[in-house]
Fold:
Amino acid sequence: EVLLQMVHAEDKEAFFKSIATSARNLSIWNHEFRAVLKSDKVGWIRGTSTPRLMQNGDILWNGVLVDITQEREDKLQRKQLERQLQQAQKLEALGTLASGVAHDFNNYLQMITMSVELAQQHMYNADVAQTYLDRALATASGGRHLIRQILTFARNEEVESKSVDLSASLNDFLQMIRATAPKATHFKFEIEPKLFIRGNLTQIHQVLINLCTNAFYALKDRPTGRLD
Structure:
């Protein structure tokens, strides 16, 4: 009864359900819950107990309760440090990508400018002008897609696994990473189409960036090189 009074109000439903399941199945009870301790301090308790059916039909649990408040706080702090480290690694990788991305984006802008200027010069011919304007729009779309990739990668998001089209994301990534490669690097890719996985796209990109930049570093003093 003392224990039941200590269980935090928000955790009572789950606590009682765990007890009921253990009693119904006579299975080992393992449960973590918040408890209101002295001075209204809230702590975390881990309970482990083995139920035993008595002759009169009562159930007796033999087990232990452990205060895991510090363990939970340490775990939370470790997760925060891991997120900070991940973000630092992302920023470092972005620094590696920056010059190549800037070069790519400059090419996009030059193509847009050139297409619009050519359209202006051919205003008397609507079809030709429309062709150049369509090219400018397509190039702008490519530039927007590039920026969206960078923002997605840089965002300090929670690590969440979801369905990812690995083939499409690899093709997008390879377009972005080419700009940072040594000039004489040849690329050879064999990507199976429509490969879907469960994962985190930002983390996948981070792994790929690390692999590619290591490869580029190994190739930088060579006249030619190939990345497979």
